[in-house]
Amino acid sequence: MKIIIADNAGFCFGVKRAINMTQDELDKSSNNIYSYGPLIHNPQLVSKLEAEGLKTIEDFSGIEQGRVIVRSHGIPKSTEELIIHKNLDLIDCTCPYVKSVHKRVDEFYNKGYNIMIIGDSTHPEVVGINGYCNNEAIIINNLEDVEDLPVLDKVCIISQTTNTLEKFNNISKAVEEKMTNVVVFNTICNATTVRQNSTEEVSKLVDAMVVIGGFKSSNTLKLYEISRRHCENVFHIETIEDLPLQYMKKFNTIGITAGASTPGWIIKEAVKAMDNLNDKDLTTDKEEQEMTENTNETETTEDTNVTPETTEAKEPVVAEEPVEVEEPAETEEPAEVEEPVEVEEPVETEEPAKVEEPVEAEEPAEAEEPVEAEEPVEAEEITENTESNDEDEEMTMDMMQAIENSFTRIHKGEVLKGEILFVFISQEK
Length: 429
Fold this sequence. Notes:
There is one protein chain. A four-stranded parallel sheet has the order 1-12-10-11, sandwiched between helices. α4 packs parallel to α5 (124-130) and α11 (264-280) runs antiparallel to α16. Residues 280-289, 298-397 and 400-429 have low confidence and may be disordered. It has 16 helices and 14 strands. It has five domains: 2-7 and 196-282, Cobalt-precorrin-4 Transmethylase, domain 1, CATH 3.40.1010.20; 13-95, Rossmann fold (3-Layer(aba) Sandwich), CATH 3.40.50.11270; 98-188, 4-hydroxy-3-methylbut-2-enyl diphosphate reductase, catalytic domain (Cobalt-precorrin-4 Transmethylase, domain 1), CATH 3.40.1010; 287-365, no CATH class; 369-429, no CATH class. It has helices spanning 13-28, 43-51, 77-85, 96-110, 124-130, 143-147, 165-178, 190-203, 218-230, 245-248, 264-280, 282-304, 308-312, 317-320, 334-338, 389-406; strands at residues 2-5, 33-36, 55-57, 67-70, 89-92, 114-118, 138-140, 153-159, 180-184, 208-212, 233-237, 253-258, 409-411, 414-417. It is α/β, with parallel strands linked by helices. β2 (33-36), α2 (43-51) and β3 form a beta-alpha-beta unit.
């Protein structure tokens, strides 16, 4: 089983900022600290903060003193003024990008424009944006909504920050064709765009896609929708407990992505669980691979008149020492041999009998430098030299720490996406 993690899975800047600010307030004092609505759309993390003293409320009218945290989605302008009027301490954790949308709406509303929001009218972010134009915004969410609108002059279009670009472009174009004096602002967050793009890319490559995030998270639901366009088997889960692990055994390649409000530790748990499942099936996978290689070798032998003895000499020991294959100078197509990707099918060289030399090599230590290969993406083969489950676990945790800190993926020696931070090489002792 091959696991591919999409770029930028997990917390976006705005969510991380809101959590850090809230944690700082809890560290000061856990008394009388309230979140006006769930801080983010992830019940597991919200429960964790509540265990530390945060109280989630939907109405602050009965609160006489304390600190009120404005969640990352933001709130209407009038609501913010009410909190301040009650002499409560307001801790504004609104995402800075959402704040910029508030300012844009306020500006064009005061210029006499009809504000039109493309998004879900019940989503807290849209409710907050609408509060900056006196709750007079026209909220649309599909092309049918556009058809029902009257012809208007002076229209300012903005988007819920978690929309897909395709949806925004289609709807805004329809509005421009129907209305006059239309100004359009693509206010989809860049963090949303890069997550959607990487999810789309990965979903095209895999047999199954796992989307991790809150069931009420708008951006996570968009990732799920995108995955469904390109992959037949898509699983939306909040935690690893929601995933049918035994059923996942049937898939050879699994992609993982996560919404902007999904904590790193939840992603780690999911990856580790599937990784452990992968380890349990490793022997079976090897047997299947050997059967495939033997079949391919037999077919190639018949086509090239290579003796059975020559074919038997190319057993998996060649794949375990991919760097050693660079030595045979007599091979007529050295360019193919130099790339580790060709090691799995050495019989494709025109003179396969000469590849027997790596078996006699006395210095396997040279294979410890696969990171020098021009195509490190195939470095996952290194894991076949690792037999210690403890070392695999240690490696996985290191990799997952890198995921949380930088969103750069290097999983079990395979460079999945992004910049190489380090390569973990386990040497057989």
